[in-house]
Structures are given as C-alpha cells and as structure tokens.
Amino acid sequence: MRLSSSLAPVTVAVAVAVCLVLSLPYDALPHARVGAPEPTARPDPFGAECRVALQGSHVVAHCHNPYADTDRVRLHIECARWWDLDTDGAPVEAGPAMTVRLTGRCWKEVRTAWVSHQRA
Fold first, then answer.
1. Do the beta carbons of residue 59 and residue 103 sit within 8 Å?
2. pTM, full prediction
3. Is 24 exposed, middle or buried (0-12, 13-18, 19+ CB in 10 A)?
4. Predicted confidence band at 1 (pLDDT cuts at 50, 70, 90)?
5. CA-CA to 19 of 20 to 30 Å: which in 11, 34, 81, 99?
6. Residues 103, 75: contact at Cβ < 8 Å?
7. Which of 114, 113, 111, 53 is nearest to 82 (CA)?
8. How far apart are CA 63 and CA 70, in angstroms?
9. Separation of alpha carbons 65 and 89, rounded Å
10. How does pLDDT run across 57-113, given as a tens digit for each residue?
C-alpha cells in the first residue's frame, strides 16, 4: 500500500501534463511545414486611362493605353435636353502605348459623358 500512495503524486502530474498537451489549440501543436501556397494569378493589367473634357456642348476625351493589350474605347454622351439625342460613339482601338482622341457633342448642354472599355 505504501508503494501505490507514493506513486499517486507522479500519476497525477503525468495525467495533468497529458491533459495540458491534449487541450492545446491545433495551431500550437508542432507540425511539418509545407511550402507557402502559390499566389493566385492576378489578371493582366488592362484599360486605357481616359480624361474627358466638356466645353459648352462639345466633348473631347483623350485615352492613353500603357498596357500590352489593345483596348477598344468608346465615347458615350448624354445630353441635358429631352429632345437632344444621346450618342454612343464608334469604338476606337487604342493599341499599346497609344493615345487616341474621341469627340462628340450635343446641340445644347451636355449632362454627362464617359468612356467605356472593351478588350480587343
């Protein structure tokens, strides 16, 4: 009986140590390192940078394409008057390192103007 009562503190200490190890969060446990995941592929940069200027009823847009892919840019104009026709210009290809000029107008005031982009 004496032998088992002297092992009681050791048994309790081992049981506590096992409980502590088993209660560690998964991330705290040692594990084999795996190589870093490969970064997800980012889409190629695309799209000409366009600046739209309004002067009275006239609209001028300059678009510069700094990228390797051709961008089809198109000027859209919304006129302020209900009877004035809104226009969607023809697409113009802006190749790599190319600047294009787009123009349009309303008969009276321009409400808004913007440029749309499309991959060629």
1. yes
2. 0.64
3. exposed
4. very low
5. 34
6. yes
7. 111
8. 12
9. 18
10. 999 999 999 999 999 999 999 999 999 999 999 999 999 999 999 999 999 999 999
